[in-house]
Design goal:
Keywords: Coiled coil. The chain has helices at about 5-30, 35-45, 60-70, 75-90, 95-105. With about 110 residues, it is an all-alpha fold. The chain folds into 2 domains: about 1-30; about 30-105, no CATH class.
Amino acid sequence: MKSTDMARKDRDLRKARKKEEVLARKMEKNEKTVGDYINELNSLFFHDGTKIYNIEMSDEILDLLDEMKEELEEKNWMNVIRKAVKKSGVKEKESAITQLKEMGEIE
């Protein structure tokens, strides 16, 4: 076996160990990521491709926004809202984003 092959295998092994350690730490903390909040918020929307209808009526959305504000940094709040609305594929994105900002009291 060449030394370059041995070095490559060693690097691959170190990468695998590092990945396992990061996943283990994440599981210990049991924290949601920004992507988790985006997916969860998007799953709570009721829409028809044009407009999101249940923003103002849903306590689940309000609870999720409150949890997000506690767990994530403030700089990520708008990213979660914008990307969740974008992922829904509605045409009236700006009105939905504005409603969510007002509901969650986000600047």
